Amino acid sequence: MSDEEPRQKSMAMVVMSGDMDKLFGAFIIATGAAAMGMEVTMFFTFWGLRAIKKNVSTGKTLFGRMLGVMYGGDIMKANPSMFSFGGMGRWMFGKMMGNHNVSKLSELRDLAIDLGVNMYGCQMSMDVMEIPQEAFIDGVKDPVGVGFFIMKAQDAEIQLFI
Amino acid sequence: MSEENKIDLELDLKGLLCPLPMVKVSQNIGKVEVGGIIRAVATDPGAMADIPAWAKSTGNEVLQAEKVDGQFVFLVKRVK
To answer: Which residue has the higher pLDDT, A3 or B66?
Structure first.
């Protein structure tokens, strides 16, 4: 068998940011890589966890519930890293992107899942931030830790930290 | 010569921005047989770089990438 398929190339990405602009970057790169035939792993940690969360309230302890209120909602609550102005920036960028026909963040994320991008929550930050697996959208795989990410990253052609 | 290429699937990618033109080509390439040709029309100038890059990475072939009346017209052949 001479025309054996070469090993599938892969990309491993940490998504720590919850900023709108950085999430756009993360999901555009992930969908692009998946379209180009790569196996893609996205490892969501800390502020990035909201990007894969449903719009449900979370938190068990007082602090956890406070966090769930202050950093609640879902990916559409993501604010730009500059010119946030308490939500004004999100509205303005949302308008501008809509005017230029850019997909919504949630649409890009759902497209990534359709394209087979593998998404994982970081178990440790889920514990700290009191966000259970049930709070995540369908398609997010069971939580993993840094060992799993390193295993994926050391085999990957592309590693990114966003 | 290019007139001889039989089009198996037409894709309207007008108005779509990065990464969607490339993603749509990738999602539709399986709909034609090996050797089949997709004709895609995009308005995003970035597609002129992205669709050939996609073809190179996935082992497919871009027979034509041309700007015609402000639109970008691609003939993409499924190689495998």
So the answer is: B66
> Looking at the 3D structure of chain A, how many domains does it have?
1
Write the pLDDT tens digit of every residue in A94-131. Answer: 888 888 888 889 999 999 999 999 999 999 999 999 99
Identify from B20, B22, B25, B58 which residue to disrupt to test chain A contact, counting A C-beta atoms within 10 A and taking the largest count: B20
Residue numbers in A near B53 (CB within 8 A): 36
ipTM, 2 decimals? Answer: 0.84
Nearest CA in chain A to B47: A32
Topology of the domain covering B2-77? Translation Initiation Factor IF3 (3.30.110)
Among the listed residues B59, B9, B69, B52, the one whose alpha carbon sits nearest the alpha carbon of residue B33:
B9
B41 is catalytic: no
Which of A129, A122, A134, A121 minimizes the C-alpha distance to A61? A129
Which residues, at least 6 apart from A23, have a Cβ–Cβ distance to it below 8 Å? Answer: A15, A17, A48, A51, A75, A78, A105
- The residue in chain B having the minimum alpha-carbon distance to the alpha carbon of residue A116 is B27
Model pLDDT for residues B9-63, shown as the tens digit of each residue: 999 999 999 899 999 999 999 999 999 999 999 999 999 999 999 999 999 999 9
> Cβ contact (<8 Å) for B19 and A102?
no
From the list B7, B17, B18, B53, the catalytic residue is: B18
CATH of the domain at A18: 3.40.1260.10
Across the interface, of B15, B17, B26, the residue whose CB is closest to A35 is: B26
8 A C-beta contact, residue A121 and residue A44: yes
Query: Any idea which residue has 């599938």 for tokens?
Result: A8
